[in-house]
Structure formats: C-alpha cells, structure tokens
C-alpha cells in the first residue's frame, strides 16, 4: 500500500482518496496497486455497496500518470515501465467492469490517467472547476488508459478532435461529449459527500439516488448545449471526418475564425507521428471491445518508448521544460504509413499478452 492512496469504509461506501496533491494526484505504480487492491477486496465485501473515488488537495482529481517516472524508466530501460502500463490498463478494465457502483468525483484537473480511473464509473460527476483532457499527443504519446475506446464513443467526430488536439474541457463540454454524467458545484459536491458520510446505505442504488437528487437541484447550473463543443460541433464533424491528418490540418487551416486558428496551431505543435497513430487508434477503436482496445493500447505503448516520440515529448514538457520538442520526423508528410501501422503489430502472441486475461464478463 502507499501513503498516496487512503481507503476507508463508512456507512457501506468504500472511499478511495488520491492523496498526492503536490503532484496533482498523478498516479504512481504503487498508487495503481493500492487502488487495485482496495477494489478487489471491496468487490467481495458484503459491507461495501458502492465505491467513491476523489482527489485530495482541492486542485485535481488526478492529472495523469507520473510522466517523470516514464522518462527515467525509458532511458534506463527499466522493466517497471512496461509493468506500469500493464497494471494501469488492467485497473482501468476492472473499473469499467466493476460489479458495484463506482462513483468518480471529478473536481479540478482530470487528465490522462485520471480519465482512466473515472471513465468507467457509474456516475462521473464534474464541477465548475473541472479541467478535463486527454493531452497525450502534446508529449509524444497517444490517448491511452482506454482513451481510444471512450473517445471513439463520443458523438460524431469529437473523438478524433479531442484525441488529436488534447483540448481541455470544462463541465458543459464534458457533459456534451458524454464524458461526464452529472454536474454539481464544488460546494454542493462537498455537501453531497458529507450527506453520504452521514448515513448508512443498504444498496448501491441508494447511493446513486442520493447523488442524482443532489445533481437535479443544480441541473440549470451548466448547459451542455452552450459549451464550445456544441458551438463548434458542425465544424469539428466536418474537419475531423477527413481521411487523414494532412487533410484535417489543411481543412482547419483554411477555415476562418479563432477556433480554427487555435485548432490548427495545436495540431502543428503535436508529434506528427503520434497524430497519425492516434487517428488510426480512435478509428480502429470504434469497432473494438474495451478488452481488445486495451490490449491494442499496450501494444502501442510498447513502441512509444522504443523509437517513438515519448521520451522527447516528456523531456521538452516536464524535464528540461523548454517546450521545444524535436519530433522525429518533424513533418506529417515524412511519416511513413508503414511506421504508423507498426504500432499496431503486437509484440506478444495470444496467451503471452500481459492483458490476455481481460474478460467482458
């Protein structure tokens, strides 16, 4: 276990709190193991009817994985790097298939790995402080932790847009995209949490009913149809339905307006290789089960730090912080189709795959 995850059971609810606020509750391997251990124990515990997960510190639910560890481990060829992703994706799967209501209080920053431990929740609750994104292409990665699967299930071509650009969403946009279920102002979320802790529950459905009722009182507080995604949806669906990244970038670059200019600038700053890999991932994921998509992501991650842009992207953003990554290759037209497809060639066969045991049951 780890000091960075606290667990307790009160009134029939298992409470998981990420307690690493100095790192915006970014996940370490020990934290992943602690969460997995608690969920496994609570799944069989008759005194636990639901699980609530939250982040400590008031700024973040979870800002992602520990990318500094990724950088150090990749340079050292540390086998714990591969182990981190195998165990993280297994945890993501466990949450999606959890037999009891699992509730994520997505207050503050929710990115990357934070999405992985929240998107499988029965209730995903956002606040006015929520800042949600899958920003992996900015550091030479791709939207993992099941990101291909859940982005591919957003309306229209929002999945391609969010995966390629890493755009940060507030509560209204998260609800519009189907990446959140309920909205509560942060003070009302605190009140709801106090109400949960103040009574005992005989079933998970009673827990959900209390939260649904609390959110109903604030339904007018945020309007999904008034967010950026709703406003730009026609443009997003037109541009991001294009057959390849070059066509997407050309279409956005030719369009007028601030949104198009900002979108084009974001795409130009990302890893050309990982833009193409991400587009392929999201489009493949539309026809995949969650289990197969997570296995595919582990295959992809195997290559990201073995000839991809992951080490360089993290160096530029989080280590040297010069924000001047030297992508290889530097241009979209220099990315060979064969290199993109190589990310989807599994290094494991059949039962040898680390996630071979994932089951939809």
Automatic annotation (TrEMBL):
GO terms for molecular function: hydrolase activity. It catalyses: 3-hydroxy-2-methylpropanoyl-CoA + H2O = 3-hydroxy-2-methylpropanoate + CoA + H(+). SUPFAM superfamilies: ClpP/crotonase (SSF52096). It holds the Pfam family ECH_2. Keywords: Hydrolase. Residues 14-344 form the Enoyl-CoA hydratase/isomerase domain. The keyword Repeat does not apply. Its EC number is 3.1.2.4. InterPro entries: ClpP/crotonase-like_dom_sf (IPR029045), ECH_dom (IPR045004), HIBYL-CoA-H (IPR032259). NCBIfam families: PRK05617.1. This is 3-hydroxyisobutyryl-CoA hydrolase. It comes from Cupriavidus malaysiensis.
